[in-house]
């Protein structure tokens, strides 16, 4: 019996055991299997172990996506976590190759995956508050948001959670140094039913740009973050 003689349900079940690259390679063998590869039902879960995987064409973003995780564990994460004004030219060059990858990818998720229920981001040092706020607005069914070692996440993300995370049940902001204890207290008051975890975040030293690099509104923003 040839694989193409299997019915659609069996083919989807077979594809579900394969990783993203294997699914893509199998899909290249014939139009029928390419059609299975492009079935949204095959893609309720997506997990990425490096940022370069986000640029591949071996997956599908669709309203069927329920769970997304991007977990980047690399020595370059340490470079991304350095304050911009302290980076050397070499470090800035390293970051320039990938600093917009996660944010650009999440913008695609916002447009294509409104039924997303769970997002995990680890080691994504360049993801911003604005990007996460848009994610919360675009995915009203989001129930779990887990952030770890995301250096640019600040109390503005907590404010966005209070304003737009109506379905959110779980929020982790672990090792996010620019989240303050006061911001966490305000969120707990605003969302008492939210399961909130912030390991080490409020105890870490937040970014402190030199006075010469601060914009006129920096002092006001600093007060708002407290």
Automatic annotation (TrEMBL):
<dbReference type="InterPro" id="IPR036047">
    <property type="entry name" value="F-box-like_dom_sf"/>
</dbReference>
<comment type="subunit">
    <text>Directly interacts with SKP1 and CUL1.</text>
</comment>
<dbReference type="GO" id="GO:0019005">
    <property type="term" value="C:SCF ubiquitin ligase complex"/>
</dbReference>
<keyword id="KW-0677">Repeat</keyword>
<keyword id="KW-0963">Cytoplasm</keyword>
<dbReference type="GO" id="GO:0031146">
    <property type="term" value="P:SCF-dependent proteasomal ubiquitin-dependent protein catabolic process"/>
</dbReference>
<dbReference type="InterPro" id="IPR006553">
    <property type="entry name" value="Leu-rich_rpt_Cys-con_subtyp"/>
</dbReference>
<dbReference type="Pfam" id="PF12937">
    <property type="entry name" value="F-box-like"/>
</dbReference>
<dbReference type="InterPro" id="IPR001810">
    <property type="entry name" value="F-box_dom"/>
</dbReference>
<dbReference type="InterPro" id="IPR032675">
    <property type="entry name" value="LRR_dom_sf"/>
</dbReference>
<feature type="domain" description="F-box">
    <location>
        <begin position="9"/>
        <end position="46"/>
    </location>
</feature>
<protein>
    <recommendedName>
        <fullName>F-box and leucine-rich protein 22</fullName>
    </recommendedName>
</protein>
<comment type="function">
    <text>Substrate-recognition component of the SCF (SKP1-CUL1-F-box protein)-type E3 ubiquitin ligase complex. Promotes ubiquitination of sarcomeric proteins alpha-actinin-2 (ACTN2) and filamin-C (FLNC).</text>
</comment>
<keyword id="KW-0833">Ubl conjugation pathway</keyword>
<dbReference type="GO" id="GO:0030018">
    <property type="term" value="C:Z disc"/>
</dbReference>
<keyword id="KW-0433">Leucine-rich repeat</keyword>
<comment type="pathway">
    <text>Protein modification; protein ubiquitination.</text>
</comment>
């Amino acid at each position: 019996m040839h694989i193409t003689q299997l019915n659609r349900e069996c083919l989807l079940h077979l594809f579900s055991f394969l990783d993203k690259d294997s699914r893509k390679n199998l899909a290249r063998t014939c139009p029928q299997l390419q059609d299975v590869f492009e079935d949204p039902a095959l893609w309720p879960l997506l997990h990425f172990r490096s940022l370069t995987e986000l640029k591949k064409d071996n997956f599908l973003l669709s309203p069927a996506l329920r769970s997304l995780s991007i977990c980047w564990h690399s020595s370059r994460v340490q470079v991304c976590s350095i304050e911009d004004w302290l980076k050397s030219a070499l470090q800035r060059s390293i970051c320039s190759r990938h600093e917009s990858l996660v944010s650009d990818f999440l913008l695609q998720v916002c447009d294509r995956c409104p039924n997303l229920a769970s997002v995990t981001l680890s080691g994504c040092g360049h993801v911003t508050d604005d990007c996460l706020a848009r994610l919360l607005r675009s995915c009203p069914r989001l129930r779990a948001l887990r952030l770890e070692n995301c250096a640019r996440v600040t109390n503005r993300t907590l404010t966005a959670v209070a304003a737009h995370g109506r379905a959110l049940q779980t929020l982790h902001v672990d090792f996010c140094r620019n989240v303050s204890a006061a911001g966490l207290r305000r969120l707990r008051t605003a969302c008492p039913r939210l399961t909130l975890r912030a390991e080490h975040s409020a105890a870490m030293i937040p970014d402190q740009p030199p006075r010469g690099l601060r914009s006129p509104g920096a002092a006001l923003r600093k007060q708002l973050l407290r």
